């Protein structure tokens, strides 16, 4: 009779542990749910040693952890190192034949970056008639061509274009 009470208490304890998630295995790995006390082993003779001792679950599988769980590592978020500025080189100034200024931007970084380019449009006396600022996405250790249409001044008045040789890293 005492062993039967211990067995019933063990089954109830196992059910509480399984339902609360304490010490449970990973979701979906339990082989079966804990059985009620009435369906636990019956018909065993008292004192034969065939009944579970106190704290055992009466033969229900899955009510105890089947192995040690491995904690899942969460990804660490380290701030990205700032990008170095790139270089900008004018390859074509806007003129009557092609009203676009063309600049080649180079990225010295090991990852893709967005770079800002400043172009000044000057007349014959050296006066800056207009300036533009545009951005271009450049692949890692690569280059990109930026075409900028001149719309703020008449193209026939542009004598020369000046490009800031430093392409500012935006992101």
Terminus-to-terminus distance: 75 Å
State Rg.
38 Å
- What is the strand content? 25-35%
**SSE ordering:** HEEEEEEE
Outline, from the CA principal axes? rod-shaped
Mean of all residue-level pLDDT scores: 76
The oligomeric status of these chains comes to single chain
- Low-confidence region ranges: 3-7, 24-34, 37-51
Number of strands: 7
How does the major sheet shape up? 7 strands, antiparallel
Estimate percent helicity.
10-25%
What structural category characterises the helix and strand content? mainly beta
Give me the number of helical elements: 1
Structure description:
- By secondary structure, this protein is mainly β.
- 11% of the residues lie in helices and 29% in strands.
- The chain is built from 1 helix and 7 strands; from the N terminus they run αβββββββ.
- Strands 1, 2, 3, 4, 5, 6 and 7 form a 7-stranded antiparallel β-sheet that branches.
- A hairpin with a 5-residue loop joins β3 and β4.
- The radius of gyration is 38 Å and the shape is rod-shaped.
How would you describe this structure in keywords?
mainly beta, 7 strands, single chain, seven-stranded antiparallel beta sheet, 171 residues, 1 helix, 11% helix, disordered N terminus, rod-shaped
Précis, in short:
This protein is mostly beta strands and 171 residues long. The relative contact order is 0.17.
Strand and helix layout:
Layout: H1 2-20, E1 86-92, E2 100-106, E3 113-122, E4 128-138, E5 143-149, E6 160-163, E7 166-169
Antiparallel strand pairs: 1-2, 1-7, 2-5, 3-4, 3-6, 3-7
